[in-house]
From TrEMBL:
E.C. number: 2.7.6.2
Family according to the record: Belongs to the thiamine pyrophosphokinase family.
Source superkingdom: Eukaryota
Keywords: ATP-binding, Kinase, Nucleotide-binding, Transferase
Listed CDD domains: TPK
InterPro entries per UniProt: Thi_PPkinase (IPR006282), Thiamin_pyrophosphokinase_euk (IPR016966), Thiamin_PyroPKinase_B1-bd (IPR007373), TPK_B1-bd_sf (IPR036371), TPK_catalytic (IPR007371), TPK_catalytic_sf (IPR036759)
Reactions catalysed, as given in the entry: thiamine + ATP = thiamine diphosphate + AMP + H(+)
GO biological process: thiamine diphosphate biosynthetic process; thiamine metabolic process
Annotated source species: Podospora appendiculata
Enzyme class: transferase
This protein's name: Thiamine pyrophosphokinase
Pfam family, one: TPK_B1_binding
Length: 276
């Protein structure tokens, strides 16, 4: 059990994930969110190679992003989603990067005629997701940059676990010095909570809810001790580990605007999207 003095020493992190998918015309709220977390001020969007079934979220992320990149076959997914609805929503794709073993020639030709750069990176010791992240980080002149990956969970289990692995791999610093990373799937948003105290805003007064009620807190890498507030089944100084107790399918209370999580070690936080 952590003492009150120990709790006071923990770093405090504020999260505003609503800002990622907020309609861009809401300038006042966007400015307020930008002061709370860098993600609201612009982020890099990486499209992974999974079908884009959640087009409402996809288009809001696309419109709010400051940089848009497809990881190899992610370009196929963009092309197919737009073509299915007869639109050119994603023609301003900046870059396609990867070993290009999944990119269809016709899709490559389509985007190249729209000034999209195509970068072939044959390195077989890194994933296409990893290549996209490295490109973003190496090209950033503004320091830390937040990254949102779309389409990361689904399909093969090993690929899904690889995407979760990347959340740890590219956020090694205890204070997110290189930027924060978010993983959107068709049904949920997942991000990494470093050891510390986290305030996650999940609801705004006067706005339609973005997130559903289901929440999970997963100690993927190592055991942790967590305390939560704002959930239906809150816990205090609760030991959690794979093979032991794990908090899944918890519920955000209807009156909760901010979920608080205190954790002694890094854990994954996942929350359902409302219209998934």
């Amino acid at each position: 059990m952590q003492s009150d003095a120990t709790r006071q020493d923990l770093p405090v992190f504020k999260w505003q994930p609503i800002a990622l998918v907020r309609p861009p015309q809401d300038a006042d709220r966007a400015a307020e969110a930008a002061a709370a977390t860098p993600a609201a001020a612009g982020f890099a969007l990486v499209i992974l190679n999974q079908p884009l079934t959640h087009l409402g979220v996809t288009r809001r992320l696309w419109n709010n992003a400051s940089l848009r990149i497809a990881a190899d076959g992610g370009a196929n997914c963009l092309y197919d989603a737009a073509a299915q609805h007869g639109h050119n929503w994603f023609d301003d794709l900046a870059l396609i990067i990867g070993d290009l073993d999944s990119l269809r020639p016709s899709v490559r030709a389509y985007f190249e005629t729209r000034s999209t750069r195509v970068v072939h990176d044959p390195d077989q010791y890194s994933t296409d997701f990893g290549k996209a992240v490295q490109h973003i980080r190496s090209g950033s002149s503004a320091g830390a940059v937040d990254i949102v990956a779309l389409g990361g969970l689904g399909g093969r289990v090993d690929q899904g676990l690889s995407q979760l692995h990347h959340l740890f791999l590219f956020q090694a610093d205890a204070a997110y010095a290189a930027g924060r990373m978010y993983l959107f799937s068709g049904e949920s948003l997942t991000f990494l909570l470093k050891a510390g105290r986290h305030r996650i805003r999940v609801r705004e007064e006067g706005e339609e809810d973005v997130f559903g009620k289901y929440v999970g807190i997963l100690p993927v890498r190592e055991p942790s001790v967590i305390t939560t507030r704002g959930l239906e089944w809150d816990v205090q100084d609760w030991e959690t580990e794979f093979g032991g107790q794990v908090s899944t399918s918890n519920h955000v209370l209807p009156e909760t605007r901010v979920v608080e999580v205190e954790t002694s070690r890094d854990v994954l936080f996942t929350i359902a999207l409302k219209d998934a």
